[in-house]
Amino acid sequence: MKDLLGGDYWADIDKFAERDFGSNTQAYQNNLDYYNKYGHAHAAKVGDKYSYDYYAHVLSTRAWASYGFNVGGLGITVGGEVGYAKLWREGLWRKGLFPNNSKGDSRKLDYLTYKAKGNFSYRFSAAHAVEANVVYMQEAPEFQSSFVSPRTRNTTTPGLSAERVLGVDASYNLRYGDFKARISGYYTRIYDQSKVISYYDDVAATFTNFAMSGIDKVHFGLEAAVSIPIYHTLALNGAVSWGQYTYDSNPYYLQTQDNSGDIVSDGYVYWKDFRVESTPQTAVNVGLSVSRVGGAAQTKAMKKANANLRIELAQYKDMESFAQFSSDLDAETRHQLEHGKALTEMLKQPLYQPKTDAEQVVILVLASHGMLDEVPLAEQRARTAAFVRQFHADVSGTMDAITATGKLTPEQTDTILNAWKAYEGGESHGVQ
């Protein structure tokens, strides 16, 4: 209770039950034990609980494992998860309408959960790549969907079972310079979902609950996107998405009311092949974008320095999602993760501190060749900035040459790498 609006207290009774069972004072008590002990309803004041009080217990444990490898242009990552879930309602108050089914623990619901997923990618060339994902999982139902009316009693949803999901998607990526295109298809099948819909029924003048189980759904569709360079850094972007989300079963339902333990009605919801509500299934988007960091805004030196940057960052993101729950990673996977972290940190730039093209090229060369992988992330910015300041005065004149020509030669790359090794080794390039 947050505010009594000028009152002294709130008489904590079920107003709807009082209307329907006025002569039975026990029936409309929200806290029947309190009434039996003191002879009157609880007088709720500011800070007190009222109407109902229960604990929603959800116990969940999970264990992850994943493995990934790359051979040539082929990349495969597989992962698995196994777990256990238990949920139950613990009523703290005995409700007058349900004296034998509201206080204490409900039936405990136990579920084995698991998940298996795989990611498969193949890069034919720098321009063409395909990727596919597949997942199969079993999850425990949500607590709110597991009970007919958790506000009032311990009754569980009839026909309740674990929810299963099968999902597959595949995509083709095309890239020629700054022209980018992607087309994807997806298919998802959902089994044995449960759902509880509660609302105030004006006809019955009370809250009504529809508990449904055995809900199956099918989602499938196509998505396509393209980015077409128009002029310099101006690009035309377009995306279209088409999907069909439908129900694939006629679930069982049970209708109850908050002020009665009787079953109002039960049966089946005949909605198979009907569209799933609240799901936009066709969308089109067209727009223009201007990017200062697009390929057209980069010098030849910068393009050469970051030739594999996008690919390496994409591989890192894929690996990161699979490895976040794994504690036993092989050396190659750990190296890829450290390299990806270094690249991500390198791309961060403080506000109002722009870098020249030559400075960016030097840092990109260091990052792309793994020179920053061993540098602690917290120190990377300061150490690279100190190196770049000193390398400006290097006798080779590398940075001046990059600025003048806009190009990066193999000899200049070797000069940058050797200078960094000497700098890190404390030889001729000490911090000034």
Beta-strand content = 35-45%
Largest pleated sheet = 12 strands, antiparallel
Overall, the morphology is: elongated
Which range best describes the helical content: under 10%, 10-25%, 25-40%, 40-55%, 55-70% or over 70%? 10-25%
Rg from Cα: 31 Å
Structural class: alpha+beta
- Can you count the beta strands? 14
SSE series: EHHEEEEEEHEEEEEEEHHHHHHH
Distance between the termini: 65 Å
Number of helical segments with 4 or more residues: 10
Q: Stretches where pLDDT falls below 50 for ≥5 residues?
A: 428-432
What is the mean predicted local confidence, pLDDT? 88
Architecture overview:
This protein is of the alpha+beta class and 432 residues long. It is 24% helix and 39% strand. It has ten helices and 14 strands. The chain has helices at residues 15-20, 32-38, 143-146, 300-305, 309-323, 331-346, 357-368, 377-391, 398-405, 410-424; strands at residues 10-11, 43-44, 54-71, 74-91, 104-105, 109-123, 128-139, 163-176, 179-201, 206-231, 234-247, 252-257, 260-268, 282-290. Strands 3, 4, 5, 6, 7, 8, 9, 10, 11, 12, 13 and 14 form a twelve-stranded antiparallel beta sheet that branches. A two-stranded antiparallel ribbon has the order 1-2. The longest helix is centred in the last third of the chain and has 16 residues, at 331-346. The radius of gyration is 31 Å and the shape is elongated. The model is unreliable at 428-432 (pLDDT under 50).
